[in-house]
Each structure stands twice: as C-alpha cells, then as structure tokens.
Inverse folding.
RNA sequence: GUGCGCGUAGCUCAGCCUGGUUAGAGCACUGGGUUGUGGCCCCAGAGGCCGCCGGUUCAAGUCCGGUCGCGCACCCCA
C-alpha cells in the first residue's frame, strides 16, 4: 500500500507555484502599500480561542474543527480561520498600547473538516488582513477598496462582484433577529426541513435558502437594512458614499450571511459565478465585539480573508498561460571533457545571475536538445570536443534556431 | 452527516450494457530515423494486482454484494 495524503489536503506542485507566488506577491505588496504589516501566528491554538471567538453555535465550531487533546489534557485546535488567532495575538502582545491603530496581514493554511468539493479543501490557504482600532466607516471602505484593488491587480475585476450589506450592531442585530424569528415562526409549517432547523440556530440563513417556497416566504420577511438603528444606518451610508467617491462598484445584497458569529455592521463578499458552488473568493466585515470577547479592551475592528485556492482556480481560467518556471540557458555537451567544461560554465553563469539548466546524464545531443526545449530556455549552449579545443562554445537561439560561436570564457551577455 | 456519479498505463480515457484468445488509444517517457542539434513527422520500446475483498460462473476488467478511495452537489463556507 502506497502512502497518501489526507483527504481534503493537497499538494501545490512546481508547475502551479509560479501562479501562487504571483498572487501572493501582489497581495503582500498591495497590503503594504496600505500600511499593513505581516504577522505570523501559530496554526495551533487553545480550542477556547476559536470557540469563544467564532461563537459556539457556528457550524465551524460545532462540527468542522480539527480538535484534539494534548498530552497535558488541554484541548487544542488547528485554526479554521485566521482572525481569532490574530485577535489573540493582538491582545496577548498588548498591541493596543503601541499604536492607536494596528494594521496586520497574515497568510497560511487553515483547517476545516468538511466534505471536500470543487474549490473547497480541508487544508487550504488564506491571505487575510485585519485593522484594529478604527471605527470610522471610511476604514471599512478603505479595506474593501484594498481588496477590490487586489482583484484588479491580478486581472480578475471582471470575474468578481462585490456584495455589500450591514448586519447591525449589538443593539439592532438581536432585535432584528427576533423580529425575523417571529416572522418565520408564523410560516413554520411551510419552511423546508433545513429551514425549520435554522429557525432555532440562525434564522438569517433562511433568507439564503434555495428552496422555492422558502424563497417565497422570505420575500416578505423584514429586511435587516430596513431595521438598522440610526447609527448603523449612518455608518452604512458613509461606507457606501466612500466607495462611490473612489469608484469601487458594489451590489447591495441584504441576504449576505457570514459564517462566523462575530460580525457586526459592515459585511461583504467578493463572489464569482465561475467556480461551481463555491462562489465566495474573499469575504470579511466589521467585528467590533471580538477583541473584548477574547479578553482585550473594547476595540473596533474590521478585516477580511481571501481563499487562495479559489483565487488560483479562477486565475487559471482567466489567465491560463505564462506561469511555468523557466531557465534562461540550457547547457548541452558531448564527451567527458566537455562535461567538465559544462559543469564549470553552469556554475559561472549562475554566479552571474542566469538561470541555468543542465543535466550530466551523458545522453545524446538530441536528447539534451529536447530537454533544453522543454526547459523553456531561450538559449542553449553546446559544448563539443571540437569547440572545446578551440576555446569556444556554440550559442543557439532556440526561438530563431540560429547559432553563433562565442568564446568560452568571455561570455557575451545574452 | 445526506444524495448522485466515478475507480482500467504517469495523465486523459475506450472496453463493461450483450462475460470467452496475448486488455487498447491519445498524450507524456525512452531509443532510433539524423556518428554533434529541440519543436513537426515516421518507426520501435518500456510502462497495467482493470482500487480492494468476496460471490455467481466452465470462464469476471465485464454480472452481483460489500468495502475503501475520489469527484460533484446539499449542509456550510474562503
């Protein structure tokens, strides 16, 4: 029996890594442009960090966490998302005493024990950013704009849609929730099985149900956006105005339901219709209560996370070519003496900064040329006995199929 | 956790319905056609517990049952 990887976990192979690097580099550079710094935090935390952070009724905490007992009996969990751990680090390192605002970004693998499907893995990568200590709506807008610009920078503006809503704050959110529960209770017998259950757990999700009768019932349900308190209405209005003022397009979707319990006020998702059932490629929002919930001072915060696999998948569809790794020069040789020369020359060229490919397998020149072709090298240097005795090598331009002889030691810069 | 689909060469798949010689193709790989020149073409070669276990049968890649694995969808979510 061969060894194999765990279900839902996958390898990212060399042929794909160029695209990953491209996407990750653009994200990091962009985030730093906005003043964010990277923070690296553990993949493993005390279970409590997530249980308290995400809310015990959320599906993630209820049934999707990789939780196990450590040798001393404490309960540990592999992070299912990034925010709770960043908040823990923010509190533990008293970052609120250092600067009035903290702008942090992170990247790494997250773990959720779900049934895998297209664009969904049990071990998957996210890049996320969190802004602590800012309660102004313009901060929400700036963060969203940063996310929007990221999609622009990797050429996916046309493939994603920004959906925006507000969930209300500590006051109007619970009030709306009970209003909604009352409403759906009145139609309970007509709701689907799932929705009857949701009524008890999270009535907001009923609004997102795909069953025909549930959709019908939802049509006349009270809307969160009509029931925001005065300050939340004003906050949401200013978020929209700010986005308008810099031309970031969005669609209001009052049915956005985030999976984590900690969100307040602004929530948003960048969605696509090109990835099957997994339509969210990035999502986030404001979470003003979380820092306090985890034992820190009352601190407003807003953040988001992007699913890298999903973005890579989408990027592959939109920009299919051009991310293979290449070498600049391939060195082919004939004979033992020439092999020594090839070995030294490869070393020299690499010292000079060229990406050089060569294999010393003693294969035929034809075979070496094939490998040179596959390696994507623009030039192939051919060292034969003949040339060696004259102190020259052949430089073949693989695109033009032309050859020149150049001196072995004074390499002209190709 | 639920439903549906699929497991045959490194990869993509045909063959299964209607059981019957040595299980096929394309791509990739190796060698040759060209004593030292890539892509296109031609020739040859190598590469298979037909996922696994059991059942039916004279005979199973093919039919049946189970099991494991994978995929998609639901739930939920990045």
């Amino acid at each position: 029996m061969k060894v194999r990887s765990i279900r839902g976990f996958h390898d990212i192979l060399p042929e794909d890594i160029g695209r990953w690097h491209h996407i990750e580099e653009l994200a990091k550079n962009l985030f730093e442009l906005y003043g964010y710094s990277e923070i690296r935090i553990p993949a493993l935390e005390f279970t409590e960090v997530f249980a308290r952070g995400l809310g015990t009724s959320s599906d993630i905490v209820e049934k999707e966490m990789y939780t196990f007992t450590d040798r001393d009996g404490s309960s540990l969990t592999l992070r299912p998302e990034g925010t709770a751990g960043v908040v823990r680090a923010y509190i533990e390192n008293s970052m609120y005493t250092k600067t009035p605002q903290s702008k942090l970004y992170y990247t790494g693998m997250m773990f959720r024990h779900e049934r895998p499907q297209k664009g969904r893995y049990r071990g998957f990568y996210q890049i996320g950013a969190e802004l602590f200590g800012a309660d102004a709506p313009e901060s929400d807008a700036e963060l969203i704009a940063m996310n929007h610009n990221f999609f622009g920078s990797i050429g996916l503006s046309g493939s994603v849609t920004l959906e925006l809503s507000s969930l209300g704050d500590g006051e109007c959110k619970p009030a709306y929730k009970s209003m909604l529960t009352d409403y759906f209770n009145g139609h309970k017998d007509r709701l689907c099985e799932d929705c009857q259950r949701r009524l008890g757990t999270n009535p907001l999700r009923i609004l997102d149900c795909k069953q025909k009768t549930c959709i019908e019932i939802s049509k006349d349900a009270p809307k969160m956006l009509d029931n925001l308190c005065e300050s939340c209405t004003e906050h949401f209005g200013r978020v929209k105005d700010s986005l308008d003022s810099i031309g970031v397009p969005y669609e209001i979707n009052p049915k956005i339901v985030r999976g984590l319990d900690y969100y307040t006020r602004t929530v948003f998702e960048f969605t696509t219709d090109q990835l099957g059932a997994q339509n969210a490629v990035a999502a986030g929002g404001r979470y003003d209560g979380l820092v306090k919930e985890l034992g820190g001072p009352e601190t407003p915060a807003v953040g988001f996370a992007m699913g890298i696999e999903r973005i890579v998948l989408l990027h592959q569809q939109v920009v299919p070519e051009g991310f293979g790794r290449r070498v600049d020069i391939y060195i082919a040789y004939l004979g033992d003496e020439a092999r020594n020369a090839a070995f030294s020359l490869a070393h020299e060229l690499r010292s000079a900064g060229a990406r050089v490919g060569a294999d010393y397998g003693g294969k035929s020149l034809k075979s070496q040329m094939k490998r040179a072709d596959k390696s994507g090298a623009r030039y192939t240097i051919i060292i034969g006995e003949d040339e060696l005795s004259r102190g020259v090598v052949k430089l073949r331009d693989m695109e033009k199929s032309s050859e020149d002889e150049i001196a072995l030691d004074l390499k002209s810069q190709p």
